[in-house]
Amino acid sequence: SELRLEHGPACDGTRAYFAAEGAIVAFEPTADELVESWRTRIASPATCAPTPIPDTQDVLVTTASGQLLRVGRAGQAWGVATGASSPGRPMALPGTALAAVVLDEKRLGVFRLADGAREWTWPDRGGGSGKIVGQPAAIGGRVLLATSDQKLALVDPVAHTVVWETSIASAPVAGPAPVGDEILLPTADRPVRRFTLDGTELPEEAAWLTEDPAYGPFVGDGRVVYVSAAGEVLEAGPGKRAGRVPGGPPKLPTAPALAPVLDGSVLLYADAEGAVSAVRAEPNRDRRRLVTLWTWREEGSQVLGLARCGDRVLVAPRDGRVIALEP
Q: Of the candidates 203, 181, 182, which has an alpha carbon nearest to the alpha carbon of residue 191?
């Protein structure tokens, strides 16, 4: 692409979507090449990777001007002002015709997918003093979120209600992760706490941190993965877990330069030197070790983003190219 790619890729299973300079671009990996599927101009720079809307070729994206856009092959379907100077990455809520966006880290805005009309804002009156920490998670059509004033809450954007809210003994340091019949949440006092789906905290911690996660949660294969800035990889899952890991959690061979991608049991990541690697955790006596499955590198390249798209791993260097790897 001759456009400068800025965010992405995000993949819906068959297509990869990028925010580029002044446009949203969709690519379709084929057997032997990447084909540009569509390109739609946008007036203001995107602030995040596009979010694919299931069962469509459209995506949601927020912009530097505070707008939420729905764009696709046919162009821009709509654009609405969110009222925020810093809107987060939008999420399409399963089983509903709604999208949710964190607004200035303080509120959750809910918008209709059909026309962008605002459906609801939480908190709708007053509310707590805490900021929304990390990215909220969807449980069906409901939204699970944690706040810096030590709260974990589940809200229902369709019914415009708070389903439940519970207090936490320590402030969260990343967003919550529903996995199986539990919710996992890392907190500042280091344990990854466990909750039932109705907000009841369970007595046993899922795992222990040695440093705050910089990336995650990533959910896959019935477990949650967090990655620190130094490359420490923490796996947690539902059910009782042992306490602190002897010697600490395993570390990636090099520190990640951007958010990794969890592909089943494999973690894909790129480092500051432009190397893209796939690693997998395997048992090793009393702790797990990371085994490197493959590494790809290009001299002098810096990676903007990566994603798994079908049977390809897409790598986006900062020079505007998109490279498809066959693992």
A: 203
Number of Cβ within 10 Å of residue 254's Cβ equals 16
Please, which residues bridge with residue 147 across strands?
Answer: 132, 151
Q: Of all residues in the chain, what percent carry a pLDDT higher than 70?
A: 93
Q: DSSP for 29-77?
A: E-SS-EEEEEEEE-SS-BSS--EEPTTSS-EEEEBTTSEEEEEETTEEE
Distance CA 163, CA 141 (A): 12
pLDDT in tens, 170-203: 999 999 999 989 999 999 988 889 999 999 999 8
Please work out, in degrees rounded to the nearest 5, the angle formed at the alpha carbon of residue 127 by the alpha carbons of 175 and 48. Answer: 40
Contacts 24+ apart (CB under 8 A), 53-57: 53/92, 53/99, 53/113, 54/12, 54/92, 54/94, 57/15, 57/26
